[in-house]
Amino acid sequence: MTFGLSNFITIMKKIFLLALFVSCLYSLNSLGQGAKPLFTNPFGVEIYTYRNSYAKGMAAVLDTIKALGIKEVEGPNPKGISAEEFKKLLDERGLVVPSIGAGYEELVKDPLSIVKQAKFFGANYVMVAWIGHGKTFTLEDAKKAVADFNAAGKVLAENGITFCYHDHGYEFGPYGDGTLLDYIIQNTDARYVQFEMDLMWTFHGGGDPAALLYKYPTRWKMLHLKDIRKGIANDLTGGTDTNNDVALGTGQLNIPAILKAAKAISIKHYFIEDESPNHAGQIPLTIGYVKGLREE
User: What are the C-alpha distances in Å from 125 to residues 9, 83, 279?
Assistant: First the structure.
């Protein structure tokens, strides 16, 4: 066990040095151009990214996150560690939790318990990332979600918490002049329901992330930074092999255009979510790439 943890820490140190090296390369490439950095917000990470490393110890995982220069974590506490212990470890490292995830059924059944959990972590946002449905996501599924989100979102709003739905790709089936995601956005009450965009799932479902940010500039509050391997076709399944998650800038998404749109509508929270088995190697590349982007 000690040997494994030692190796894990050594690997993480090497990853940090790689991230620093890549960041320097991108920065040097931009010197002399006089352009300002495109991305100036703190980096965040969705804690689910590190799910396969929990067995090494949460302290080691959070040390890795801090070493990468990441400031924000999207929680809550993973299984196997109490909320109290997780928060203690976060606080010791100066990591903050602006947002926590919650299950759809959990939110609908007991929104006040979600409020309590969010407040414990100091989170201002609660996100739900999946709407249960059959083989395809239908208008009836969307209508039910609208009613549930409006009701639960009202409870959260009355307690000082903002509810966000995180799109997952299956909502881009056609409806009217747009998609079922358009239907959800247009029919939820903006006082109670906002949105977190997952860049990869938006694109994989056939959406244009930058265009959607501009289309609903007051509804998007957070982003999941994510890219998908070149050559992978879009579909409405809301799923793809985790090996198709790649470092930002190496996949299909136009990251500069998306970040420009996000900046224009004042997105403040950006969480890296990399579900790939190679996330440890890819996240430093993502950070270096984003840091190297410059305004036109």
Answer: 32, 17, 25
Which tokens hold the place of 227?
């890219």
What are the phi and psi torsion angles at 18 (to 5°)?
-65, -45
- The mean pLDDT of 272-290, rounded to a whole number, is 97
Residues with Cβ within 8 Å of 24's Cβ and at least 6 positions away in sequence, in order, are none
In the chain, the DSSP E strands lie at 43-46, 72-75, 96-101, 125-128, 162-166, 174-175, 178-179, 193-198, 220-225, 227-228, 245-246, 269-272
Q: Could you give the CA distance from residue 178 to residue 199 in angstroms, rounded to a whole number? A: 18
CATH of the domain at 282: 3.20.20.150
* Locus of tokens 């249960």: 132
Structural domain tally of the chain? 1
- The pLDDT tens digits of the residues spanning 125-173 come to 999 999 999 999 999 999 999 999 999 999 999 999 999 999 999 999 9
Mean pLDDT across 190-203? 98
Confidence of residue 3 (pLDDT cuts 50, 70, 90): very low
Burial class (CB in 10 A: 0-12, 13-18, 19+), 34: exposed
Tell me which residue range forms the domain holding 188: 2-292
Q: What does DSSP say about strands 227-228 and 245-246: parallel, antiparallel, or unpaired?
A: antiparallel
